[in-house]
Design a protein that fits this description.
The complex is a heterotrimer of chains A (330), B (326) and C (344). Chain A is built from 15 helices and no strands. Chain A has helices spanning 3-23, 31-39, 46-80, 92-105, 114-135, 137-140, 143-167, 172-180, 188-205, 209-215, 219-224, 229-251, 257-268, 273-298, 306-324. The radius of gyration of chain A is 20 Å and the shape is globular. Chain A starts with a helix and ends in a 6-residue tail after the last helix. In chain B, a hairpin with a 4-residue loop joins strand 5 (198-203) and strand 6. Chain B has helices at residues 15-20, 31-46, 64-72, 111-117, 126-129, 133-139, 151-162, 165-190, 216-224, 230-234, 265-276, 278-281, 284-287, 296-301, 305-325, and strands at residues 59-61, 79-80, 121-125, 141-145, 198-203, 208-211, 239-242, 255-260, 291-294. In chain B, the strands form two sheets. In chain B, strands 7-6-5-8-9 form a five-stranded mixed β-sheet. Chain B has a four-stranded parallel β-sheet with strand order 2-1-3-4, with helices on both faces. In chain B, helix 3 (64-72) packs across helix 7, helix 7 runs antiparallel to helix 8 (165-190) and helix 8 runs parallel beside helix 15. By secondary structure, chain C is mainly alpha-helical. Chain C has one domain: ABC transporter involved in vitamin B12 uptake, BtuC (Orthogonal Bundle), CATH 1.10.3470.10. Helices cover 74% and strands 3% of the residues of chain C. Chain C is built from 14 helices and two strands; from the N terminus they run E-E-H-H-H-H-H-H-H-H-H-H-H-H-H-H. Chain C has helices spanning 20-42, 50-58, 63-97, 109-128, 133-152, 159-183, 186-197, 205-222, 226-231, 236-241, 246-268, 274-285, 291-314, 323-342, and strands spanning 6-11, 14-19. Chain C has a two-stranded antiparallel sheet with strand order 1-2. Chain C is globular. In chain C, 57% of the residues are buried. The chains are: A mainly alpha (330), B alpha/beta (326), C mainly alpha (344). Chains in contact: A-B, A-C, B-C. At the B-C interface, helix 4 and helix 6 of B face helix 3, helix 4 and helix 7 of C. Chain B: Keywords: Ion transport, Iron, Iron transport, Signal, Transport. Chain B: Its main location: other. Chain B: Residues 58-323 form the Fe/B12 periplasmic-binding domain. Chain B: Belongs to the bacterial solute-binding protein 8 family.
Amino acid sequence: MSTRMRLLMLAALLLLCAATSLMAGAHWLSPVDIWHAVWMPSATNVEDLLIRTTRISRTVLAITVGASLAVAGGILQTLTHNPLASPGILGINAGALFVVVLIATFGGFGISWSPYAGAFLGAAVAAAIVWWLAMHRATSASPLRLILAGAALAALFSAFTQALLVIDQQGLDAALFWLAGSVSGRPLDTAWPLVVIAAIGLLLSAPLLRDLNVLSAGDTVAASVGVRLRRLQALAIGAIVLLAGASVALAGNIVFIGLIVPHIARRLLAADLRVWLPGAALLGAILTLGADIAARLLIQPGEIPIGVMTALIGAPLFIILVRRQRNAHV
Amino acid sequence: MPILKPTARALATCPVTALADHVPEATKLASPARRRLLLGLAASLLSPAWAGAAHQPRVVTLFQGATDTAVALGVTPVGIVESWQDKPVYPYLRPDLAGVPLLGLETQPSLEHIVQLEPDIIVASRFRHARIEPLLARIGRVVMLEDIYRFRETLSVMAQVLGREAQAEAWLARLDARIRNLGTRLQKHFDDRWPLTVSLLDIRANEVRSYLPPSFGGSILAALGFRWNAASRRASGVSLKLSGVESLPTVDADVFFVMLHSRSAAVAAHYRRLQAHPLWQRMAAPTQNRVWPVEAVPWVLSGGVLGVMHMLDDVEHWLAHESGRA
Amino acid sequence: MPMSDTRAIRFGSWSRQFAGTPWRRALAVFVLAGLVGIMGLVIGAVKLSPLALLDAMAHPDSQAGLIALQLRLPRLLLALLCGGTLAVSGWIFQQVMRNALASPDTLGVTSGASAAAVAYLSYLAADWGTTGLPLAAMGGALAVIAVVYALAWRSGTTPLRLILMGIGMAALCSAITTFILVSSPLTTTLSAYVWLTGSVYGANWVEVRQLALWCAGLAVLLVPLVRFALLAPLDDALAVGLGVRVQRTRALLTLVATLLAGVAIAWGGAMAFVGLVAPHIARQVTRAPGVAQLLTSAALGATIVMLADLVGRTLFLPLDLPAGIFVAAIGTPFFLALLLREAR
């Protein structure tokens, strides 16, 4: 099967998942209901209301977050030449999360969107530190050191988050929502600016694909064929901040998507970044949607937090990937 | 936080010690400490050392319900722990507790501060303080309550230890009379519509909780005669957690008592979103205009008899409002 | 290392050579740990001058005696034991896995113990009391390392595969922990959360004695294994050539390291990061791998946790905050600075 075919199939699978996501829940709805709700909504019909007020927004959110995290992870892995790099492992998510909880603890300064702005601030600060470390001679020489530094940063940020939660215990429960991740209860009419920002992040990374692809052959190779490294890195980091910040602001802590999806995409599609990175976006969206559907069906009437669900799906995939490695050193 | 926990009761009920001593507050202590405790208890039984005497016992209260109860019994503690909301002290207790030193968080009060206060009695809860029990026993006489939300037990045990049984009985009599009276008035007012179904809702930043009859606030509503809807009656535990508007119908009821979990903008925004949602507007209480705002402090966070009195005030205000409508 | 830097100690036919500098540096770290320990006894809600401290020791029934002997000393010792044990565990892991990333945290030991402990607190503590908590935590730690080992096994294990599996399992376990936290009643959540941060608050002598016994037992177990831990960084083939049964010693050392981390977590909560940072700093302090480095690592771990607890209980008086919060806050800056300085 050609890679183009596979990409198309992924896209079809995503559409299928999206349709399922609109139907699935405590009330199963038929495709007819969905058609009705989308094209000729009535203000009194409960099914229409359900679809329009909750199902559509959580579907859009899951797709946005999944695609953003997968792309952010893919770019990070290419940029740092490190297969373990991802917004989670390098502490970018933890940074965003810390600022969100920090702002939520102080009551959001009376502004309901301030935690979202905080997510970007936190992601940017963490990314700046990671970037500075990655560019530093000592750490750029060794991928392991970058991961170590990232792990240290993540531990630092989560310690700060814990400190806030222990002092303000009333806030613990609001914060658990962020820590566990969720795409429910964020209606699109308030969350749309974040979706737009994530989309901008995705669009911003599109023109970088060619240079990033060259970069995956190595920094020196890239430089020798005329890639302006600094500029590329700056733009890519900018895109990552937008993507990771928007994801955390939208859905809190969702793990593993950024780490494993690029690996699966590379295996499934091609070694060419111009093919696998868009594929990773589709795959990330599919996995996150699938996780969300499972999350709302498994323990009714409750819901499993989606971040927990992605870990439950992602960890076994990760383990399989590691076990499949034919590389003798692994 | 939260004064409710279904399973907490047994958290540290060690069967051996429970058999060994039939004193209510007897706990797992190192033997010298236990001897001292028993001696102390015997002494207090023989001659209520501080009942009526000029010397008031120095009491330290380590959970919110104990602080509330101490104030109710007319004893000002010499040290208290920080409140969960409206820090550092709940507003309804502030006039009585002005200047009382704070000992830090309810989950881990500063032991060194407690030592300096040289307390006679330390009121703690086994649910929160099981780990520090042996240390507390070295500082003063420890009164361990099983739970933090069983206000009747907290009241009677503390009254016994402080030699203020009469006040406690007066409180309980007053409370029961108020509940009976208010229950009859509710029944009279709503007549054949009584018992109404009720939901005690806690609006949080990202979810809604509905407290069930075993909870602190729910128990008072249940005592007044309110009922919960069929879906809630089937649920176990102290609260139902609703994730997303889709599950709102599980808490549909004739009356909503609604509290905001915190004073943050996110919670207020969530409540506004809910109120604007068609599914909320279709439920019984909103359509009949029976959504009554209450404060979280008395309803979930207080844990003492004074808090309960405030709850009854709230229900009375609501009933007055209802009568005014009719 | 140059020969001039070594000392020999002889007792009859028994002799040992010690490298001078590492031991001198280790001694400096021990002195540092001692100073932090004394600070921990002196500083608090009540300041006790060293003289007052001595007086307090002599009069255990006085108020100062109560504070020093019943509140501060057990707490300090528990912090010391937890920190030291975690650091030793991390040091063994880093030696065995030949990887600076290896630690009880990255191998899933901490997360496994946490998941088990939080499950215990949420579902079983109501009926069984909290006495079973240490056992649950250790059980969780052992179960996870067993799974990691099984998953990484493909006619033998390699260190890197173990670490990758550990990262996977760690994430899985923390997802389970989060789920339990989210779904259990809030009051349990709170106690579980404090436990997860790692805290030596409310330590008493009984706990200190139990933990000390475990540590002593494991130390005895460790002594004959130390030389294998020192050989572990060698290439597998080379080690086999030296007569080391690689897979067996690796498994044994992993087991001991897991147990060490398990007991520390069982009594001190999920104090993350000590096991990663302390051995790393120790390697900077005493460059040559050896017993001196192991002991330095233990002393550093103890120092970090003692210092974190001191800060936690005094910085925001009267709030008494879990030590775990400050472990990362103290460790990270050092750690990052070291990472950056290393390559110069």
